[in-house]
Amino acid sequence: xxxxxxxxxxxxxxxxxxxxxxxxxxxxxxxxxxxxxxxxxxxxxxxxxxxxxxxxxxxxxxxxxxxxxxxxxxxxxxxxxxxxxxxxxxxxxxxxxxxxxxxxxxxxxxxxxxxxxxxxxxxxxxxxxxxxxxxxxxxxxxxxxxxxxxxxxxxxxxxxxxxxxxxxxxxxxxxxxxxxxxxxxxxxxxxxxxxxxxxxxxxxxxxxxxxxxxxxxxxxxxxxxxxxxxxxxxxxxxxxxxxxxxxxxxxxxxxxxxxxxxxxxxxxxxxxxxxxxxxxxxxxxxxxxxxxxxxxxxxxxxxxxxx
Length: 307
Hints:
Blueprint: E1 5-9, H1 34-45, E2 50-54, H2 59-70, E3 76-80, H3 102-107, E4 117-121, E5 124-125, H4 128-140, E6 149-157, E7 168-175, E8 181-193, E9 196-200, E10 206-209, E11 214-222, H5 225-240, H6 252-261, E12 265-272, E13 277-278, H7 285-297
Parallel strand pairs: 1-2, 1-4, 2-3, 6-12
Antiparallel strand pairs: 4-11, 5-13, 6-11, 7-8, 7-11, 8-9, 9-10
Helix pairs in contact: 1-4
């Protein structure tokens, strides 16, 4: 069987969560964190390696809370996303406090990931369907003898991804007639409304969105050459961020959208009807705990996940 890796991005600081490391917050009845459920689903789907992308300062906590347990079930590796991990000739701007975004997170996996891989966020629950679909794509999609890259993405229904507690950022997807992605638009401050969903602007006007449209939740399927793309593009990104050095981020949706515009990639969107949930805000915590309790009551998970 072809080897496949699950890369979990967990280096984010989580400023809107109200303090603490949200990726390590227990939500399940036996102390499970969200990553436990994602890893459980990934193993069931056929992934046979896990790479955690974290900050070096989190390593001891990470190993104690999840890493030491998970390495008994599946091979585990760590990649470190740090602000000062930059190409030659670049330095961290004075006043910068956060890493450089999800593109840099995956770039931190260079030399560690050398097989087809999926990418997810540590603090998002995606459901089991997406893991099976992305794994099957990575394993069974034959290499294409053309000049394009061939990647995939799990697509989620917008109304299934909204928070009751504030605006969220989603990658709004536009597809062609064959279900391939033609554009991904990173859209900020999407809120739940009586009619479904809308973008709330700074002047408090609402721009309605299709609640049944597909969005990206940073669940990607890539081949190893994507890491080379990231490496080549990171220096370009750093050179072009003049005036926004403290906040600019090298983001996967933007990187993929640029590849689409240049017609360098075909990206298959694999729709999932599963309900997403996550912990963008502290107030999301009881909702997420109840959601896992409901899944356990339905028999999807046991009360002691790996017991």
